[in-house]
């Protein structure tokens, strides 16, 4: 009897440990309940204030959310939001380059490269398994960018998932994941620089760019060679949030509170309007 009890006890402990490892931290977002986790590293906000600078990871390749100009300056919706958060903390902001293939490893790096990442980052269950994310502040969904002359060819995912359709995506993010999972018959090219793909589509180097509804308005308004015929009916529906490592409970709460206040006072809606974006579906 003691042996059976001991085995059951061991199995129960192992199960609890497995759950703790698999789901180290989850946070509030559209359609997601709030799950608390403990801050094991002291006060993140205190460290940021002592430093006097909020370190923000960003890719700088995602107009109109985060873009790095040749002169070294950043602009975009997410850049302004990061500056607002830094101002709320009473510190300066410094943008730290990251990339889609290295985003997760950069967030989890030791020593820590930055306090949070903001760059049009989609809230996904996969990211929430190992990292924390803020509540969603921007609606997002997968869609396509194509040449204006080809717009009438593409009405559905089936029209794209064909062997004669050339698809181009950037590496390491959800665009590549979507293409590999949903476009198994198309010819897929992974191009290293996201911001170069729209022009390559316009020049005929590929037929379709898998992108998001946050990005296409900028490109179709700035280049009449391009079209986004399915922007009103995206293939997926998701939200964008701010990404950070687990254990920064005070910073996560402050970020969520700020986003919520901006929703309530209308300033987030004003920022959406400035960049031609929408909060929700």
Question: Your description of this structure?
Answer:
Strand 10 (166-169), helix 7 and strand 11 (187-190) form a beta-alpha-beta unit. Strands 1, 5, 6, 7, 8 and 14 form a six-stranded mixed sheet that branches. A five-stranded mixed sheet has the order 11-10-12-9-13, sandwiched between helices. It contains eleven helices and 14 strands. The protein is globular, with a radius of gyration of 21 Å. It has helices at residues 2-22, 44-51, 77-89, 103-107, 125-128, 157-160, 174-182, 197-202, 216-222, 249-265, 267-274; strands spanning 53-58, 61-62, 66-68, 74-75, 92-97, 116-122, 131-133, 138-140, 142-147, 166-169, 187-190, 208-212, 226-227, 238-245. The chain has two domains: 25-139 and 239-274, 3-Layer(aba) Sandwich (D-Maltodextrin-Binding Protein, domain 2), CATH 3.40.190.10; 142-227, Periplasmic binding protein-like II (D-Maltodextrin-Binding Protein, domain 2), CATH 3.40.190.
Tag the structure with descriptive keywords.
single chain; 281 residues; alpha/beta; D-Maltodextrin-Binding Protein, domain 2; 2 domains; five-stranded mixed β-sheet; 14 strands; disordered N terminus
Topology of helices and strands:
Layout: H1 2-22, H2 44-51, E1 53-58, E2 61-62, E3 66-68, E4 74-75, H3 77-89, E5 92-97, H4 103-107, E6 116-122, H5 125-128, E7 131-133, E8 138-140, E9 142-147, H6 157-160, E10 166-169, H7 174-182, E11 187-190, H8 197-202, E12 208-212, H9 216-222, E13 226-227, E14 238-245, H10 249-265, H11 267-274
Parallel strand pairs: 1-5, 1-6, 10-11, 10-12
Antiparallel strand pairs: 2-3, 3-4, 6-14, 7-14, 8-14, 9-12, 9-13
């Amino acid at each position: 009897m003691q042996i059976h009890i001991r085995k059951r006890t061991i199995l129960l402990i192992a199960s609890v440990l497995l759950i703790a490892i698999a789901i180290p931290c989850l946070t509030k977002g559209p359609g997601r309940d709030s799950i608390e986790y403990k801050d094991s590293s002291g006060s993140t906000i205190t460290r940021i204030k002592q430093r006097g600078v909020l370190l923000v990871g960003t890719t700088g390749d995602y107009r109109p959310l985060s873009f790095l100009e040749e002169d070294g300056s950043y602009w975009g919706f997410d850049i302004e939001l990061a500056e607002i958060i830094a101002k709320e903390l009473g510190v300066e902001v410094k943008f730290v380059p990251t990339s889609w293939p290295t985003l997760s490893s950069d967030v989890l790096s030791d020593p820590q490269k930055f306090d949070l990442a903001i760059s049009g980052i989609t809230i996904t269950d996969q990211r929430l398994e190992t990292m924390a994310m803020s509540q969603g502040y921007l609606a997002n969904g997968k869609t396509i960018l194509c040449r204006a002359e080809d717009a009438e060819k593409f009405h559905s995912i089936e029209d794209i998932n064909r062997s004669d359709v050339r698809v181009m995506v950037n590496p390491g993010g959800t665009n590549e994941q979507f293409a590999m999972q949903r476009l198994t018959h198309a010819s897929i090219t992974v191009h290293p620089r996201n911001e170069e793909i729209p022009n390559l589509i316009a020049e005929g180097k590929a037929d379709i760019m898998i992108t998001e509804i946050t990005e296409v308005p900028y490109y179709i308004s700035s280049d009449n060679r391009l079209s986004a015929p399915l922007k009103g009916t995206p293939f997926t529906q998701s939200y964008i949030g701010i990404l950070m490592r687990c254990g920064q409970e005070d910073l996560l709460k402050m970020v969520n509170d700020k986003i919520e206040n901006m929703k309530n006072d209308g300033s987030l809606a004003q920022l959406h309007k400035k960049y031609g974006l929408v909060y929700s579906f």
